[in-house]
Structures
1.
Amino acid sequence: MSTPRRSPGPRSPAPATPVKLIDRAGAARPVTGGSPLIPLRLIDAPLQRLYVASVAAGLVAVKAYQCWALVGDGLRQSPGLFIQWAVLDTLFLLVVWRLRIPLLAFPWFQYLFLAILAVLLDTQLFLFRHTVITYALQSAGLQVLGTFQRWRAVAYAGLYGRPPSDNPILGRHTVHVLPHSIAKFDLTRSRPCVNTREASTAAVITLPIIVNGTAPATIQFTHQPFTSAVVETYSETVSNRKKKLARVQKGEDWSIYHYHLQVQLPGVYRLLHVRDDMGAEFRLTSQAAVVTECPYARVESAEPADTHGGTLARWLGWSAPSPLERNQCPGDRVAGLQVDVFGVPPLNLVYGRRYLSSETRVTVDDIGTPKPAAPLPDLNTPADVPIPLDQLAPYCAATFAHPLSDVFTEPGDHFLVVLGVTDRFDHQSPIIPPGQSTHLAHVRVHPLPTVQLDATDGVVRRLVAGSPPDQAPTAALAFQGTAPFHLTYSLTAQAAGAVVNPAEEEIKSLTTNRAQAQVRLNTAGSLILHTLRDAHCTVRIAGAHPRVTVETITPPLLTMTAAPIKAACVGEIGSLLTLNLQGEPPFRVTYRQTHVDRRDSRTLQAQVDEGHQTTLRLTPSVVGRYTYEFLAVADRNFPRGVPVRNTRYTQVVHPQPNAIWHSARKQVGSAAVPRHEVCRTDRVTLPVDLSGTGPWTLTYQVVYRPTEADEPPVTTPVTVEHLTGNHYDLTVNTDVPGGSITVDLLSVTDANHCVKDLALPEATVRVRTHRPTVALQCATWIDRHRPISNEASPDIPTVWFHQGDSVNFPIQLEGEPPFVVTYRSRVPTARGSSYSRNVT
């Protein structure tokens, strides 16, 4: 008699060890203390804190032991212990404060506060007896002692303290007669199934049993496979595996228990006996439990595997194709793939067709049973009596092959994946990840090969008359698909547009491993494409066949007429060349431009899309001497070009002249524009800097705007010629009643007749209307200060004042403030002095 092994439960993961970050010798120190008393190079900060924590833990342990001794003696007071611990706690905190350990170097008043708290706690523990803390410690201590107490055996003294005897116990007794205990399989939720494809430890399942009544001690059950009439008996001791679910009545030993029998073989399990510790039998209801095999499905190859080819590929180091991979063309049906479905019929299969990010689900019902299934028989028969095999047939599982004939039209990678299978008892197979080959098939739909010509129908290829065969035109072919490519084509001597007789065509073939190929057209006629085959698919080129016709052509010709300008300025039109072209447009003229002074040359091209004549402008942007040499001309028929005779042109490009205000060289913004404010008839000069080739001609205009608003402005254009120096002082006439004068530089011309229009900010000159005046107000002031007449100069008033006093002379100013007044003071017997003062 054998019992199934229990499957070991999954190991719980080890708890994560917390990581504690501690500072080292270089940790930041608190600002409340100085450097540690013990240097960190001898003992680092974490180790010092560990020592302090160890001493503190030891003190707490000793204090707890002595306090517990007092509690065991009835909370007796101990002034000696109080003094001892008060001194120890205070000394400990004092030493910690003095050590100044990082992260423990708190201010002194905090340690003082901790010392006071420690002394108060010692007072509660060792002096005062009836306190809340002592009662709490007493209660907690009693609980701890009760936990660690050992049971002590006491002999039973019998009735009235006498030793027991063989006589029955006298008195009245009450006997409770309980109903029979009941045991049954609990299969109301689902029917179990076992996965026979997995390992024995992973395929173990549990059969739930509900027991109503006393706790059972042993459970005996039988097992009969679906394909055998042999009944095997098993026994399980379950007294140590009960799990109480609910209690019916409080105070009675009448409960509901839940047990699980671990099994791993399919078949019929029936309860035979359930007994308790006293040997009492349980009544059994619903003692039969059917355990079927779980369904599953996998994609398999319907074709026999090529073992020799796979072995040879592995021996050569190649990767042999997987039997679940198929290569096909669009529109073909999948061949050689099937889904093997295993389970109790009828089976329902669900598989998916995945393409890119989309998935199409396909459902196949009633696999394995063409007709409705027969009803299931009742298997609740005596456990030791075999069940007939015909009654067990509806529970037997089998394998059924469902061929796949899907059609894929989109090129790309398609995947056939089994999503699930359901058997007769609604058992569903677990979804296996798509990466497993048992549930996944890869169908690679290759696109149809294509070929394209570099010409459309009716395009004519030109062949130069008398050219060698290797210079004949070619038709470029571009293939798309999987190499190698095999193309069939024909070269006919028929004229373009003529009806071609296929029987008269000479079919040729072209095989290449490259995506690009060329067919040389060395005779007159047309090229016709027929079929194309790559490594996977074959396609017939239908419709109008692209044709290429060969004709004789002549090379292009270039002639030029020009009246070149030997000298020009930067930005002007320059040389104008008229190009006369012969051939088929578009044309491309290639010429070389060389800067003689810099010895720099570059090749340029002139494109003529339409027509046979164009004008070419040679306008260099850099000053210097240039030569132009025409090299080749190309047209539609000769894209590589045909050399032309050397034709050279020479051109000299002069720099553009320029004129700027002199102040703009050193300043920027508004400060770079000359601005002056003068009086009438004052001399104003505006410096101008010239660049280019002298002598220059400068043109500017002067605009005078009077102060009176009703008077119109006066504009005067001025042209100055033969300026030989790079610097010119422009003089402005300020002999006007008053107002503003603006000077605008218009243009400058150098010796090479290069003209440049100037766009500079205008210079501004503001002319005041009147000059400032000053006068002494002597008449009014002298009348108030009683002057004394001066005999030497009777016209000059004289004022006498004592030495050390000051005299204020009022003056009258006319003009625009602020003013600067300059006056002179002298003593008749001494030399006079001049003074100046700012008056706002």
Note: The helical segments are 45-72, 79-99, 108-126, 132-148, 307-316, 389-392, 778-784.
2.
Amino acid sequence: MQRHDETGGCVAFNEDLSDWDAFLRDWPIERLRSMTLAEYATVGDKRCFTYLVERGLDGYGGMRGGTALKFGIYAHRSGENDEKRQENVTYSANYAWYSRFGGDEESVFQKVRDEVAAIAQAAVKGDFSPVDSSADDGLLWPVFRSKIAFLYQDRSAPRLTAVLSPQSLRRFLGLPANDATPITQLHARVLQQKQAGESLIAFSERVWETAKPPEEGGTFSAASAMDYLSRRFPGSYSGTSHLAAYRTPSGRQLAFDPGSNPAKKIAVQIFVDAVPPFGSALTVTEYPPEKSRNHHLKSHAPALAAGERAFSVNVASAEALTQLCDWYDSEISQTAPSSTSSIVMPINQPLNQILFGPPGTGKTFHTIDKAVAILDPAFYSARNDEREPMKQRFDELTQEGLVRFVTFHQSFSYEDFVEGIRADSEGGSLQYRVEPGVFRSICEDARGSSQIASDIGVREGARIWKISIDGTVTSTTRNYCFNHGEARIGWSEAGDLMNENLSSVPAYAVLGSNDRSSLHGFSREIEPGDVLLCIGSEDKFQAVGVVQGEYEYQASPPAGVRQDYVNVLPVNWLATGLSLDIRPLNDGRKFTLKTVYELSRFGWPELAEYLEAASVSLTKGEHEVAKISQPRVLIIDEINRGNISRIFGELITLIEPSKRKGSVEALEVVLPYSKKKFSVPDNVYLIGTMNTADRSLAGLDIALRRRFVFEEMPPKPNLLGTVDGIDLQKLLTTMNQRIEVLLGRDYLLGHAYFIGIKSVADLKDVFQRQVLPLLQEYFFEDWEKIALVLNDHRKAADHRFLSQPGNDLQALFGKEGVANSNPRWNINTKAFIEPESYLGIYSAAGPAP
């Protein structure tokens, strides 16, 4: 079966080993040691070593594609186009090689030949260390080394699979793209899953199928982008956990932030040095020289760093990435546009909108599309007809803190939405604090997004923690922590705080509640991206840092550190030597004696503003904080079920576009509990949903109506098909026409109830469990009108969903009797399984006799 390999070639996994056997007979180790340059590489010679290994034996491991420089030296056609020649490559009449390898072809080939023979000889002896060597340790590229070692290994006890790309092996094992496990160890772990009796080639094909890259049908992500770029531009990777940078053969740089979980990030912003000619199909943002950006670019892609003109391209698919690289890898000079404005797809979404309609019309469903269109318009434009990627992108944006969700109800209040007072036990006493609600929180995050920057590591929703490192007096331990990027606390007698049986450790069990709380918070609650304030006194802090990683227990602290300070967190100390009062931030309160605890009265936005006002730089000189105005989306489900005046309070005016911060008529208010000034940023989008069956649009709060754009979500019968001869489109259309006449258009049935129906059995479940109960609610159990909607009066008795049993009132009540003012109705369960019952809803047949 043919498969494309990861460098663009075509692989036919071949379980017939005769070609492999023939190769080993023709190319024993002795011949490798004495082969000539012509035997190694000659244009058009299918018997030369490089052709055989790359193409003749690609059924035993694909390595086609890329540049022929992977062979160390390669044969080129005489008169090769000068325009295609690279500056760092030397060309003789018939061969080419990297200039750093030497000045003449024979001396370079001798090095290549020695390396080839050494790899093969080592593989025969079971030594695969050459495969793990870095790309700079020899003349051959890693993929070529792997193929040689694979071919010469002992097939009865294989150490390598025929899947030569380490990225494929990482995908098979579920490892991140930047995992540093040596190649031979990856193969060893993969081979552990080889089944008894399964041939090496068959197993390799299974590994390849499982680890198929996005361009072969896999899911696109930041991890797969790193995978592709590592294969497209081998040996060029440079970066950190916050940046992956690459170079084309001509030296052009490109880079992006893979995020904290590259496998889950399904769109990337790639920095390039010019605007792609197909930029209208993507979101492209210009970065003029003076505009700040990811500071890691300075070290790993300086041509794209601050001080240089660059462009950020949103890429959300393997096809878009390939197209971008095809253009970027070309030798044609690119010319950037003269405009210095950002080239961004417009966000054609109102700041405040409500999706309204009857039940089942997809209002909540469409909030996902609306949110993605606002937060990632390029992804929406490229993938809006693909539901699964759209939902995955929405979940990713939600995980990043860019989307919040809340449901209004009768008990929901201003205190839940904006801010309220909550009781809290801190330092052993009951205290009351102001806690922000969901709306104030998202507004503060949106305002803080111009201050929070990925290059200093503060995460969305970061928690602020107080920490005392060896008290407040001068301390060598604290100085060591500041100088070595650590935060430490003591209690060594408790041992490793991640011990599952910690509570049973005697030294831990005797600690007081504050000490146990400090240890628990330090080891289990503080997360990477949280902020630490190291105290200098009871009312001042002396340092600000961002947590960089997970808790570590270090049984033997280094020299100069208190020997009981065994509990460690990695921290990037942004500023030290401070003496700033905590009380303006902390509602007038000083620090308590507890070693570690969360400072919950303020967040990162307030802290960043406070530090900025105190002229404290968080960027250590050359680092610049990126000014990013990232939008936020708040989805308010069932917005009409809450008391709008009570929930929004005075903020109902501030959500108007013309009253938002930054506008000419911007307003701000003083919040009643916190007494803080507050305004609504212009990058907070409100998306509400409204079920018209709960309350008609006419009865909605007038103040809300004039501040929101309303988009009707009507039923869409055209999305429905036919099931077992029943036309669902006609069925829904006819029922809704009757409901509109009898009750009004606010009470129609949505198409969502009928999406996914594949049989009469499915239709039965929908009618019994959803449609009929909804009609009962609509018509207040007026069964006669429900029967009219179902057209029961014009069906045969067996096909009526509802029926009226005969009433013998005299038998029930005696001779006196009662007026038959409340006739009884029965539900005919047998009718729900008959197709004729549903066909009769939209047919015009007369009543049965």
Note: Confidence is low (pLDDT under 50) at residues 1-10, 331-347, 450-454, 620-628.
3.
Amino acid sequence: MFSKAQCPLIIFWLLSALAADTQANSAAGVDTLLGNTLNPTGTDTTQTLDERGLATFKKTFSRSPTGLLYEPPFSPPKFGKIDDWHYRGSIEGGFLIDDDSAKPENFIEYSDWSEGPLLNYFNFSSWQENKGYFLNLSGGGVGRDDQYYLAQGGRYGLFKLTGFFNEIPHVFETRGLTLFQGVGSQQLLLPAGLVPGNNTAEEIHSALEAASRRSLDLSRKKGGLGFEITPTPHFRIHGRYTQEANKGTRPFGGTFLAPFYTGGTAGGVVETVEPIDYLTHDLLAGFNYGARRYQLNFTYRASFFRNQKKTLSWENPFKNLPGDSFVVERGRFALYPDNDFHNVKLDFSYRLPWRGLFTSTAAWSRMHQDDGLIPPTVNSGQADSGIDLNNWNTTAALSQKTAQAEINTWLFQVGLRLVPFDPLTLRADFRYYDEDNDTDYTAFNPLTGDIGYIVEDGADPGRGFVFQPNQPARPFHFRNIPFAQRKKNWSFNADYRLIPKTTLGLGYQREVIERDYREREETRENRLIARVSNRSIPWATFRFSYEFSDRTGSPYRFDPYTAFFTNSLPEFNSLLPQGTTPFTLADLRKFDLSDREQHLFRGLVNVLLGETMDFSLSFTRVDNDFDARFGLLHDENNAINLEWNYQPSPKLNTYVFGSYQTRTNAIANINDAGFSTDPNAGGTTFPLSAAWRENMDETNTALGVGFYYQFDRFTLDGNYSFNWSRSEIDYEAASNLSLANPELSLDVVGNSFPDLKYTRHILETNLRWKINKNLALRLLHRYERGTIRDWHFEGLNSLIDNHLFLVATPNDFEVNLVGLLIQYKIP
């Protein structure tokens, strides 16, 4: 809900008006379709379907070119008139009640279902008969956390001004339990009685019993202003400014040590609460010019993200490692940095002979962030590793004070379409994309002359990561890797009409990607496409396609990052005389770089079962086979969708739909169970006895039914949807060395995780009683039930050994909501 202080801002957004151009070529229509869960499309809730359907005189029902029935339209609005101004208005308001005052987070995640008065929708429209001026005002959920408003005005054919404001909540947890005080700020403090870095489990338990539960949520508020001017029929100028504010809290991470090797008292996992206070400014400006044979579009976009909370620090509730005298009092994270984005885009198209069209695009983008960097640690004193943290807890310990990070991209694209003779259509496209990463940072401390950084604020004495020249050590990462790429795409397509209403298409695509600092310098993918569409049967439409692609590339280098690790330094001395230990299994293939064969099948069938009925069936199958022994081995996706529509009259229509999707994949790897320079599978570092494989099988089902019926003065509509999903994960382990914690035995861990299951039922019904031409009464009901079975949260407590959790767990819920609303229209 908005406060009195926010009202002038909302009024300014609405009445000053902003450009929200609805033409797709400028993409300036974003945020002009507003709504919430109770009215997702933001349309006039007082409207009813036109009893005449799409035509006054035509008796048969209208269909799309693919044979599907069009939805019945709404009745044309009726306008009153004062002088030469036409006007209309509508409003809907009433009261909401429900049977669950607790409001589970799964139910209110993006909605405000608060009991009480509700102004669900309002609208006022007016236009001038002679000069063409117009004004449209609409909104809904007034004063609630999911409210929205839209204002548009101007003069038809000359200019348009539009303004909007909308708010969306995001509830993560309604009963989160945290030990910390100062939630929502940048500093999380332990309660009185606890000492940072030195508490027993019993003391932490006692403090948790006194802690109160709280909601973890944020609110997104967005508004904007702009314009559209059309001084001539061929020239249009448009612009837009939007501002988005996100404020609140959400679950966040925090850790000092790996959880299973620290023992029951030393600090491992700590769940914290992130403060959210973001502000984003977006700008868009451009023009469109069209002549008889060509069209030119220019667009400039900019985005400026500002985070008012730069860091998050928290006090450590746990003790140190046994034998470690250094007290780790605090931990700290750097939060999302301020950043800027600029994009300039130019589109040009020209009509050619042979019904041809030439299109081209040139674009440049710049992403830049120069936020101030935080010191390597927040703590002070002498760590057990021998490092004096007083030389590392200041910005003077940084090689540069700001990030100086920048990425520039270029995009060039051309396309050609020709119809040399009637049955044949030819298309060719070329696209070039260049991404240049100009970001360079070296972890170097000018105060000490050392290369490196402090790990986990000094919590792990064995992982100081400060380079000691000529001292035996393992290499570590000390420079950022400026990943960059250049991508080229070619596409050639031909469509030929074999017989009337039957078309055969063939296509070829090629993609070449050159990458900097990746395991493969280049990947090459070739794709062949065959497609056919048939409309020769009066009662059906068929479309099928098959695609085959083959990706290969340059030789695979399992470790291309040596230049960014300390073993590239001249004074590096490895623990092993033969060389350094490998970071990655040489036989592992990353899925975006490995050789791959892909088969893609698509099909669509639309069947006319009669003048008032249709049926649609579509399916997709994607089969990816990766030529790899380790990594992602294969990935398969299948989907089938069914829909049946029945419209015996404009007063009655109903539909049924169903969707079934499956996905299976498998990944494999070998744990680094040994200590040697051998990177190969079966060697000392990666013995086959430490190999493992994981298989995932996921199934998703969606079913739904809906209807609409008008009789006498009543309108009854309803819809029901059911969603069900299950994820099965099983694994194979060669021995206990394959486990993340090798101290466990295979008998204990078994060979699979419990299935993850999710179900959701949503039933909505509406009964509308038209009392007279202006007044109506609407009774709505919404039933929603959801269940989640996720083994990650089974038996989860706020404190388990050295794990501190928020207990932000998903819960089953069942809610009935009833609303009684009055609708009134003018004239």
Note: Confidence is low (pLDDT under 50) at residues 1-29.
4.
Amino acid sequence: MIRRLVPAALRRRYALKFGLVLLVIALSVGAIGLVETAMVADSVEERVLADQRQSAVEEAASLERWNDRNDQLLLSAAQAPVLGGEENESEIENYLADVYGELPDNARTNALYVDTETGEVLAGAGDDPDTLEGMAFPDGEKLDDDLSEYVVQRTDAYAMPDETSLAFDHRAVRSYYIGVDEDDRALVFTFDLAERSSEMPVATRSGTTVTILDEDGRLVADDAYLGYREDRETVVFEESYENDAVLAAVREGTPGAIRLEESPGDLLGGEPYEFAPEGYVVGYQTTNEGWIVLVHTAEEQAFGLVDSIAQVGALATLVGVVLVGVLGAAIGRTTAASIDRLTEKAARMEEGDLDVDLESSRIDNIGRLYDGFDAMRTELKATIAEAEDARAAAEAERDRLERLNRHLESKADEYSDAMEAAAEGDLTARMDPESENEAMAAIATDANEMLAEMEATVARLSAFATDVATAAEQVTASSEEVRAASEEVSGSIQEIADGADRQNDAVQSIETETNALSTTTEEIAASSNEVADVADRTARASREGNRAAQEAIDACDDLVAEHGTVVEEFEDLRTEVDRITSLTDTIAEIAEQTNMLALNANIEAARSSESSDTDGFATVAAEVKELSQEVKDAADRIDGRLESIEGQAERSARTVDRTGDEVERVTDLVSEAATALEGIADHAEATSAGIEDISAATEEQASSSEEVAAMVDEVATISEETTAEAESVAAAAEEQTSALTEVSGSADDLSQQANALSAALDRFETDATVDSKEESDDRSDSSDESDRGGISSDESNGGSEVPEDETPAAFEFDDAGVDDTDETEMDPASPDEERGG
């Protein structure tokens, strides 16, 4: 296939083919190198984007932790007892000052205790405005609602007026607020969003800018203090983010990163960011409350390694291609020159110049190829000399073979005439075995022996065909008589089988009825036994009921005696209830003290808010307070339960008095029931005795029924066996009749085939004869053997003897010897068909 595609001019020039292969190898190396370099660069680029996405995820997690920390600080501070008891503004003022001092100093703004209805600031620390409206608090309307004491709420980012600063009119802040025990009071903490820049994980990374947007895409935090470290012109708080492609990617809802082949807008390009690369990468993540974290990194910073890998890969690919070309050219040039010289010398050898110089100084494959051509030239010279000698010998042998061929043709014609005569039916024809060729003489001798055997065989077949026809007629007559008798026997046996079937059906019906009678008798016996058992159990139950009634009378007497004791126990119960009431008061006092301990723990939690275990300590304090409140509630519930128990005890005492009267009345009724149970026991014993007599008689009847059923089963089994045997005999008789019919048909066919064989054999001319006495003896022997049901092996081989002066041939008379041969196949006019027969 490749040879047909490659041009002949290219296939004839090794140097051109070698150069083309080098070019393909060089191009392949270059393509593979470039593809691998691109794949590595793509892999590194994907990893860079994944790192950028992870940076955004970390920044979002940091923002979530910052909000959660502020929530926890506010929640811990709100649990203080000073905020839940009688309002004392001076104590609250001092408490808030302590709490404010413990807040993170880099972002704290104020801690306020406010009236939720009016928005008035009742106490505070840090920037302490008179009202929430004065600090531009955005959730003033939400304070009018019922605030939870356990869930901290957050405002959106907003600009709080700053009267203490000379450079800025406001600050970017966020407030957290929660309700306290009082219905119209709340605690508010405010933190500076600009000062949070120092807490960002990637704040110190060069070439990277982090911005945080609210749900509306406005800038609310970053890693550059929102421009508050410069002047008013650099403040970017609540500026809108400019890149719509980034915002569209963020709205898909999953964290990711995007590469932008453009410069950022004026917001990032100007102060305070001065982030203006030619291209950049943005990682994005959305927090749980909808704020968007964006991490921007310059493209040269993020993909510097990718560009280096691409350059190194391209350079390595170029070097590989050059090396392949240089080495291939050096090797191919010398190889092509040697092959061209060898090709020229081979062409001279082809023209007949066998004295060409085939020496070479090379010892590689090319040198061995020169040596091979030299050896081939020497061998070729010797072969040419041998071929000339062989040609002379072949010419002499050709003359001898021509003479032999003429002799063989004449003998073949002679043998052909003899075979044609035999084929036409003259089995006396013979061949002359005298010949110059031993093979032809052997053929003539073997053919003469074969014709002699065929002549004797045809004579035996004629005699055997006559015997077979006679025997077939006798077998046909006998089989007809046997078939008629078999049909009569088959009809009689079928009638016997039908009678056995009817007998078997009758026995099966008797067996079914007997089994039903036996089953009914057994059920009656079982029912009688059950009734007897019930009567016996009734008598025993009556006696036991009598004893139980007597015991009940005794128990009633004991109840009357214990009635007074129970009344005294109820009096003791009232005394114990009074003691438990005193214990409950003590538990309530302990709960109050535990509550105070929890409030002190809240104060300590607020003071240690900067330590690593602040959250855990505050949580424990809250749990202790809740536990103390639960203990107090439990004590109140116990007190109420004791009052209920005391009332129940008084009601139970009255019930016990009524029970005593009822016990006396029940005692009289039980005595009357005991007398009646004694009479029932006497009647039940008499009933049990009568039923036992009935049960014994029924069991005896059931035993007799089972014996009858067993005998009927045996008769049914015998009947089934008789039916089966009769059916088997009937089937055998039918099979015998069918077999005799087939035998009769086969005998008729055999007689017809024997007649056809005799007619066919009459067409052959033979000198062999079969002695009449031997023929008669053979027929007698065949008749005797047929009477005994078989034919001996000698008769099966023809039933005649071959004269002593002829060698008999083995002849087997099988099914093929009596085929219905069509007369046209034995037509003497078709010698080929006769030879085939």
Note: The chain has 14 helices and eleven strands.
